[in-house]
Amino acid sequence: MRVCKLFARLVTKTMFTILALSLLLLATTAPCRAQITATTDNAYVLGTNSVNSSEVWPPAITGQPTVADPAAPGSPQEDETSTDGGWHFALNSYLWFPGVHGTAAGVRGNSLGFSASPGDLLSNSRFGLMGALEVRRNRLVGSLDLLWIRLEDDKALPLPGFVLPPTSANIKATEFLLAPKIGYRVIDEERIKIDALAGFRYWYLGENLKFNPSLLGLNFSGSQDFVDPVLGGRIQVALSPKIVVNILGDVGGWNTGSKLEYQVAGVVGYKIKPKWTLQAGYRYLNVDYHGSRGAVFNATTAGVVVGFTRVFK
Q1: Which residues pair with 228 in a beta bridge?
Q2: Strand 243-253 relative to strand 260-273: parallel, antiparallel, unpaired?
């Protein structure tokens, strides 16, 4: 538990360090606003934010004409639309390829350690749904992140045939996460945007173990669910008109649902079309849950994430 708290403090300090470095970068490199027009669409993945304001870089870089075209991206007419105070939406669809390790215990007190590689999880996956909905109006931002996976595996148990008949074990596991958040954009500049967020994450964990035949009555079926309040933030830094780096993190729990949970993620986005962005990055999620009936789930899930974002308005 002490290690988890130290790590959470490290995550918090890292986020503030990134914030300070980003502000320094903005102060030293950002050109005058009179030379840059905010226009294009940016979008995040992993429950970040769908933004509709980014810089259009000088015509010498983009190859656009120097005289504003009323119908062209970057014209004053479009700028007024992007800051009209209306609602803006984006849909993120992503795939997470993590490895997982940790400790689990049932209500009877039996515990075990577990570890699975990304290949193990992928080969035993039976269903997966991952995505996020993004909303923004002026400086008000919101997101809804969803993850739902089902795993299944069958194993033959090498028991002596003359003592017990041949036995096989079938295990099914379900994990469902839902994380709505709302926040405020504290910094909204051409090359850097910083949001402060608050919300909660709902966890559902389901397990089902069956033996065939079950001569000793060891079949098991159970589930746990809990809700954690979370606080976090995210930073977007535009490296070019098409490339954006997103960093996000949150921490929560504090003995409400779990003892502690936290996540950190970094994603690089590349805009292939005005309303389509590809992303790739890394996500780390840890939770330490101890249920009232003795159930324990202390797990770290981390791995590569890829996806795309479609901006609708």
Answers
A1: 201
A2: antiparallel
H helical segments located in 99-229: 118-123
Q: How far apart are CA 201 and CA 47, in angstroms?
A: 12
Spatial separation of the C-alpha atoms in residues 41 and 52, rounded to whole Å: 4
**Token pair listed for 57:** 């870089």
Mean pLDDT, the chain, integer = 78
Global pTM? 0.74
**CA 33 from centroid of its chain's CA atoms:** 32
Cis check: omega of the bond before 213, within 30 degrees of 0: yes
- 45, 267 contact by CB (below 8 A): yes
Alpha carbon 144 to chain centroid, angstroms: 10
Alpha-carbon span 245 to 279, nearest angstrom: 9
103 φ/ψ angles, rounded to the nearest 5 degrees: -135, 140
CB 286 within 8 A of CB 261: yes
Give the type of residue at 143.
Answer: S
Q: 128 near 148, Cβ under 8 Å? A: yes
Max Cα distance, the chain (Å): 88
Euclidean distance between CA atoms 251 and 284, whole angstroms: 12
Cβ–Cβ < 8 Å for 268, 245: yes
Reported as a single tens digit per residue, the pLDDT across 71-123 is 334 434 444 444 567 899 999 999 999 999 999 887 666 677 889 999 999 99
Q: What are the residues whose beta carbons fall under 8 Å from the beta carbon of 221, sequence distance 6 or more?
A: 207, 208, 209
Rg (CA), the chain: 23
